[in-house]
DNA sequence: AAAGTACTTTCCTTCTTGGAAAGTGAAACC
DNA sequence: GGTTTCACTTTCCAAGAAGGAAAGTACTTT
């Protein structure tokens, strides 16, 4: 039916949509935007990485560790396909998922 | 975050979107469109009814029993809100969930 | 009486999630 | 040097969701 089970969970949809908008996002930024705990984001990020949808990069800001997340090409494509599937479902109802 | 957990599950989203398009739909029609078994549709329909989102009407066609499902006003509103929430999330990514 | 129709319910097993808390490794503080 | 803190990660656990299979229900049809 086209919906991607890896992306469909509410938290993951939010993470992926957020990442789709940016090149890369910091772990802490995503955590705050999506409003989840460290552990929950960490788990979802790992799951998305395992699926090949997200690349996790570790580095430093000054001397402090920092983690960045970004959508892989595969993740971007999967997200687009997922949104298209949502669109197809919602379009059946006559709604358009478009603002205003 | 606005997504309605009752509606969000893939099968339920499909059911609700389908019902949103019509006045009423027959059980068998919905089952075939959504491609689930009798038991799965029956359970989801009951869950949606318990949430107050769907009205289940039983009647006959000739002498054979038949069940119709329809979105309640509350269900329609919840669906609209859910779609708006999806829209809000997806819009962040720059996508629009609009066809073409 | 037996079989079929149109679902409904129960049973059971699996998957997913989330919160809480402990763990890790490096850096900063006293 | 020992203790905290920071930035996550992992483990533990308990709860809820979901689906398939199969049995059940209430009639009707053959």
TrEMBL record, chains A, B:
Classification via Gene3D superfamilies: Winged helix-like DNA-binding domain superfamily/Winged helix DNA-binding domain
Residue stretches making up the Winged helix DNA-binding domain: 11-90
SUPFAM superfamilies: Winged helix' DNA-binding domain
PANTHER family, A to Z: BSL7504 PROTEIN (PTHR37318:SF1)
Name of the featured protein: MarR family transcriptional regulator
UniProt organism field: Planobispora takensis
Taxonomy of the source species: Bacteria, Bacillati, Actinomycetota, Actinomycetes, Streptosporangiales
């Amino acid at each position: 039916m086209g919906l991607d089970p890896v992306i469909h969970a509410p938290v993951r949809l939010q993470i992926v949509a957020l990442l789709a908008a940016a090149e890369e996002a910091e772990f802490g930024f995503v955590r705050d935007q999506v409003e989840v705990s460290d552990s929950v984001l960490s788990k979802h990020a790992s799951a998305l990485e395992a699926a090949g949808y997200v690349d996790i990069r570790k580095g430093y800001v000054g001397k402090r560790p920092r983690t960045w997340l970004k959508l892989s090409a595969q993740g971007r494509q999967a997200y687009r396909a997922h949104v298209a599937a949502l669109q197809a479902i919602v379009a059946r109802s006559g709604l358009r998922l478009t603002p205003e």
